[in-house]
Amino acid sequence: MTLTATNDRNTVSDVQPTPGTGAAGLVAREVCAWFSGRLVLEGVTLAMPRSTVTALIGPSGCGKSTFLRILNRMHELVPGAQLAGSVELDGTDIYAGRLRATDTRRNIGMVFQKPNPFPAMSIYDNVLSGLKFSRISVSDRDALVEVSLTKAGLWNEVKNRMRELGGALSGGQQQRLCIARALAVEPRVLLMDEPCSALDPTSTARIEQTIADIADEVTVVIVTHNMQQAQRVSDVCAFFLAAENEPGRIIEAGPTDVIFGSPTDERTSDYVHGRFG
Q1: For the segment 234-249, what is each residue's pLDDT rounded down to a tens digit?
Q2: I need a labelling partner for 245 at 20 to 30 A (CA). Which of 17, 41, 61, 260 fits?
Q3: Spatial CA neighbour of 89 closest among 76, 110, 73
Q4: Looking at the whole model, is its pTM more than 0.90?
Q5: Residue 28 phi/psi, 5° resolution?
């Protein structure tokens, strides 16, 4: 099942990805998605330049989280899911067969809305768990744990608690532990699906600071319903919208200051200024 669709308001900007390690550029081209034959996302084209933060905004049910999961091949895990279009990581289509799904997810990590550390595993082992699953060996595990927790803004709070269970941490600490776990495998892109939605303002501020701190070395794509957060953390914004009985689409995408300050589509202006959604 295939579908070709265009979106004149959203074009792919020039992305000059750097091969090898480090932050990578992502480009989605004419992405369409179905669940059990129902079209839920149509004609999504979006560039997510390396070493930037891209925020996906829009009302619930417009396809933001579906699109996020497409970016690291989690969509294909859903029974009855189908996909058309392409997603390129530094010019390589992650769906073209040259990359295994596990390799894709190592390069493109994910942090979910609900913190999901392994509750019966220590803080130390939680950070290293991704390396074990990916069969990655490191010469100095202690140093890697410290670096990963420091990047996630958690080291000073847990450095004397390494053998305590990850499930004993507060909600905000658990989320930052999950970020540290994702960063430990040195992904090139980090996807974040409403990572602060269940957190208090202090924990939210710490995670936003973490995003700012890591953006130079890993490209970040974040779904958020918090317009103030989108303005604070992102360089680029993409506004998704789905009409009644219609699939989700990108209405407008561009630099965050333009999307919030002078959008070209009235629907974008209405949404970012709280007039609907």
Answers
A1: 999 999 999 888 999 9
A2: 260
A3: 73
A4: no
A5: -100, 135
Q: The tokens of 183 are what?
A: 């960063």
Distances (CA, A) of 255 to 127, 211, 217, 260, 261: 34, 17, 20, 9, 10
What are the respective helix, strand and coil percentages of the chain, to the nearest 5?
35, 25, 40
3-state secondary structure at position 86: strand
User: CA-CA distance, 211 to 94, in Å (whole number)?
Assistant: 24
pLDDT tens digits along 152-209? 999 999 999 999 999 999 999 999 999 999 999 999 999 999 999 989 999 999 999 9
What is the 8-class DSSP label of residue 58? -
Residues composing the chain? 277
Give the whole-angstrom CA distance, residue 97 versus residue 201: 42
